[in-house]
Design brief:
CATH topology of the largest domain: Rossmann fold
InterPro entries: ATPase_dyneun-rel_AAA, CbbQ/NirQ/NorQ/GpvN, CbbQ_C, P-loop_NTPase
CATH class of the largest domain: Alpha Beta
Bound molecules: adenosine-5'-diphosphate
Order of helices and strands: HHEHEHEEHEHHEEEHEHHHHH
GO molecular function, one term: ATP hydrolysis activity
Family: Belongs to the CbbQ/NirQ/NorQ/GpvN family.
Number of domains: 2
Strand content: 15-25%
Keywords: ATP-binding, Nucleotide-binding
Protein name: Nitric oxide reductase NorQ protein
Helix content: 40-55%
CATH architecture of the largest domain: 3-Layer(aba) Sandwich
Amino acid sequence: MSEIIDQYRITTEPYYLPIADEVELYEAAYSVRMPMMLKGPTGCGKTRFVEHMAWKLKKPLITVACNEDMTASDLVGRFLLDAKGTYWQDGPLAIAARYGAICYLDEIVEARQDTTVVIHPLTDNRRVLPLEKKGELLHAHADFQIVISYNPGYQSLMKDLKQSTKQRFGGLDFNYPEHDTESEIVAHETGVSLDIAEKLVSIAERARNLKGHGLDEGISTRMLIYAGSLIVKNIDAHAACRVALVRPITDDPDMRDALDAAVTTFF
Ligand code: ADP
């Protein structure tokens, strides 16, 4: 059985630069197995953080990218058919609960509400997962913890978590790191010089100020890392920024001009 869960163990330390006291807070939350909600814009380090914490706590990590087509069975499990007949296959949530992993449900808000509710009995003191089709009430392993990510900018009336779901979690706020920290991250992840990393971060800061004024989302740390990775491949900085920073976030010609101008200011 251990080989099922061993594939989810993280053996080398995922690089993570702490932003505030999130590492200590998470450790305390894990020690009481509090379900956690990591809140913040896309590409700001939530996934990397949970990978780092799973490594630090020496727990396997099972990550599920949620989407609107995902059903409760995709999480919990289903009967499958092969030459020998039908057999039960645990879904990722059931594997995590059975063997004691951290289960990270990324962008949970994308999942339909009838899917989201399957996590409820795992998030209160019952810590159980009913496998209804199989007729099993799975009691979660002592090491099991559930973590979800949530981008507050994305919610709308149609797509938001129910209060009854939200209130089952402790919340940690994430945001793009401040200038020096983000520059260090970009330099570390890509191999560009600190000087170039700082310029990339400065462009992102300009773009983030335009959020809500024509841009839905700012330029994320992830996008800066894409730009830096192109620059280390000897792509001209203007072209790298156009491809990795400007084109993906807007189709509006005026906004593109404004962002291209920011790139020219720094490079
Ligand atoms: P999210 O899950 O919030 O969408 P990610 O965790 O995938 O974002 O972050 C995108 C990338 O940014 C990561 O792969 C990592 O390279 C980098 N990153 C962001 N914040 C940090 C941080 N604090 N320490 C180290 N790397 C970071």
